[in-house]
Amino acid sequence: MNLRILSWNVRGVNDRLKRKIIKSVIRSQKVDLFCLQETKVQVMSDEMVRSLGPGRFLDWKLLNAKGTAGGVIICWDKRSLEILGVEEGQFSISCRFRNEGDGAIWVFTGVYGPFSREDREGLWEELGAIRGLWEEPWCLGGDFNITLYIDDRNRTGRITSAMRRFAQIIDELGLVDIPLQGGSFTWSGGLNNQTRARLDRFLATPCWRGPSPFKFENMWLKAEGFQELIKGWWQGIEIGEKQSRCPSASGVLGFCGRSEELTEVELNQKKEAKESYEKWVSMEEVHWRQLSRELWLREGDRNTGFFHRMANAHRRINAMSKIMINGVRFTEDQDMREGIANAYQQLLSENPGWKADIGGLLMNQISSSEADGIEVPFSETEIFTALKGMNGDKAPGPDGFTLAFWQNSWETVKEDLLGLFKEFHDQNSFIKSLNHTFLVLIPKKGGCGGLGDYRPISLLGGLYKLLAKVLANRIKKVIGKVISPDQNAFIKGRQILDGSLIANEVIDSWQKRGEKGIVCKLDIEKAYDSINWQFLLKVMQKMGFGSKWIGWMWYCISTVKYSVLVNGGPSWFFLKHERAAEGGFIKGCRIWRDREQAVKVTHLLFADDTIIFCEAKKEALLHLGWVLFWFEAASGLKINLDKSMVIPVGEVDGVLDMAAEIGCRVGQLPTVYWVCLWGSK
């Protein structure tokens, strides 16, 4: 059941006109529950409360102000929520609800935070008591009168002890900070309201948002009896909330710690409680480690608090509150999902039209025995070796299973996995849902505005990752024989830095010999998204790969479906139409080894970056432009002119006209490329 909740520091409700404004806003938002802070009314009458909320189904609970300071009121629609319990504190009021729609029980706490350090400790104690009283999903909303992060203020400051304490409380209570949408601050003050801060926020337990798509938790692997349960019913697992047993074990340990003398029965209880507590602490650590993605830290170092903070930080950084797509601004989650999905569906769709034929091109080939060798049936050892070499903590795809599940349950599920690989080998196919993929947008920098400010990351299903890994391990054995030696990336034994150093040697050789030349730095625009699939298959065919291997590749790239994840919610799945990694291409420069021998270098490739050495003549750039045109016509790969440039070496006349032949800008030496400084004297 979806609920709309509003929290608002209204700074007083005594004024009748102000109450009308509040009521109008609440009516327009169509909320199921609203919480108002700083009512500044010591005793609120029923008439005053009803003037705040619309409808005859309004119900409420109050925390009266002290004089004209503070005051919190929680109001809800009785058609949506049934009140089950209330707890009133000095700075907060908590209500336990049951949803009328689905019967789910949850807790809401309205907060108006105090200013002094001593009173804040009182608020933290109140919240801790609520956490211990009710175990249901919990949401807190209100004005905490304190910031949590440095960027919660428009003026850069430092992390204070109060902020550290607030973060500690959030960690201890197992809460998640829900990112703010639509703006960065909730309060303004000072001279001309120049000071702005985020004092209001929602906090919630991870389970508060309700049922969500299945995701396997690696902490389940530490649960006693897990493997036995999987053997009988490995499609699902029922393990209670990780915190549910931990507090009870903690309580027993606390009791034992206070007792002066323990009986033998009590000693056994203490031992069992300690073992239970340690187990659940360990499981909690695994859970937060998985969420934090800090994979360089090992389990067992008791980094639960760190993992929790990192998970919260990642949520905050990656949260999307607004985005601009083709001049249209989107702010609602659903609108953002649809807008992004439509944009990427268009991006990943190929423009139909004529494609240049590459039938006349000559390419390096693998032998027939090598082609047959990578098409043999998949063995259990081959699959398991690939599986064990993969990181089990990586984010899962739409299937929800992490690789850790398959790694730890191998003996139970291996027959199904071997069957999947056998079907793929014999029939060149698998269940298409295995290739469903979540597309997540990660900010490249702070203050992202448009779609180009985000980097798309694909979250693949675990079984498809395994299949791709096995295929990658096979092609590694032969790929070095067919990929040009000018390509310095992705091939075992080749280093990108080597190519950058060679390019610097070319430039240095020109400068020492007083020669003029042009260095063209070319970048392929969205190479992995725009390549023509048929071009890719034709290239593999000319390289000597067999029909079965090419059939495997075609099925893998043609069955993928994407769903965009925005703030944890997926869009509809869409196909990647006829697009699937890259390429490149001519004055040859001779780098002299000695007086009798020279190495001719015409071009170098760095994944989707290409370096070409040309004569300082307009005709050379004209010919290069035509080569790039035909390359695009054949492959679908297009030069990104914004990231490409021509760099003159020596005093080159008419360099602007040369750059115009390609359509890119003019650079200059010295320049840095792959941590190497080119052309420095």
Automatic annotation (TrEMBL):
Source organism, top-level taxon: Eukaryota
InterPro entries attached to this UniProt entry: DNA/RNA_pol_sf, Endo/exonu/phosph_ase_sf, Endo/exonuclease/phosphatase, RT_dom
Pfam families attached to this UniProt entry: Exo_endo_phos, RVT_1
Domain Reverse transcriptase, first and last residues per copy: 423-666
An example molecular function term from Gene Ontology annotations: catalytic activity
Transmembrane parts of this sequence: none
PANTHER family documented for this protein: REVERSE TRANSCRIPTASES
Name of the protein described by the UniProt record: Transposon TX1 uncharacterized 149 kDa protein
Organism: Vitis vinifera (Grape)
Classification lineage: Eukaryota, Viridiplantae, Streptophyta, Embryophyta, Tracheophyta
Protein encoded by which gene: YTX2_678
